[in-house]
């Protein structure tokens, strides 16, 4: 749909909000992110960065149990080594609710816009999918794993299915 946009707010939790944890009291950050998106999409301001980094290339290196995730931004900021998970199964397809998801820590940073994650926990099972920040509350206030270094906007959560070979942005 033309001129429709969203803002990622998963890094703005407010677990003690009287309105429930999904409704933070402090709306300034959400409003700012939506305003950026409005300027870029509805008003066609070409140089307004309104979204955090999104994977542009995911490469599985099964020989050394690594997955490379390259983002579309020039410079990402990595705050910690957690946040990614892999689904490994020899017998069934992984679903969002599957219990086969295992932590996949970041092992290294690739250049200025990528990370390598470890899949060694698959131990013989077939790697089927990768996901990022798939939790009700994936991080504390403004401390998710990956942000765009220039705009300080968070990377959205995603699921990458090796079977389908597509990244799905879930928001």
From TrEMBL:
Name the UniProt record assigns to this protein: Sialate O-acetylesterase-like
Species assigned in the record: Saccoglossus kowalevskii
Gene name in the database record: LOC102804679
Portion of the full-length sequence here: 33 to 203 of 203
């Amino acid at each position: 749909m033309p001129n429709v946009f969203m803002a990622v707010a998963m890094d703005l939790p407010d677990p003690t909000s009287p309105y429930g944890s999904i409704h933070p009291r402090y709306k300034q950050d959400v409003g700012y992110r939506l305003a950026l998106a409005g300027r870029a999409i509805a008003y066609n301001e070409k140089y307004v960065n309104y979204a955090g980094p999104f994977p542009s290339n995911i490469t599985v290196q099964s020989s050394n149990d690594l997955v490379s995730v390259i983002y579309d931004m020039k410079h990402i900021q990595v705050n910690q080594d957690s946040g990614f998970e892999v689904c490994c199964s020899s017998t069934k397809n992984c679903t969002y609710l599957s219990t086969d998801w295992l932590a996949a820590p970041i092992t290294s940073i690739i250049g200025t816009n990528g990370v390598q994650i470890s899949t060694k926990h698959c131990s013989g099972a077939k790697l089927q999918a990768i996901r990022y920040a798939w939790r009700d509350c994936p991080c504390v206030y403004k401390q998710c794993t990956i942000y765009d270094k220039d705009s300080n906007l968070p990377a959205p959560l995603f699921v990458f299915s090796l079977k389908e070979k597509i990244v799905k942005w879930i928001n």
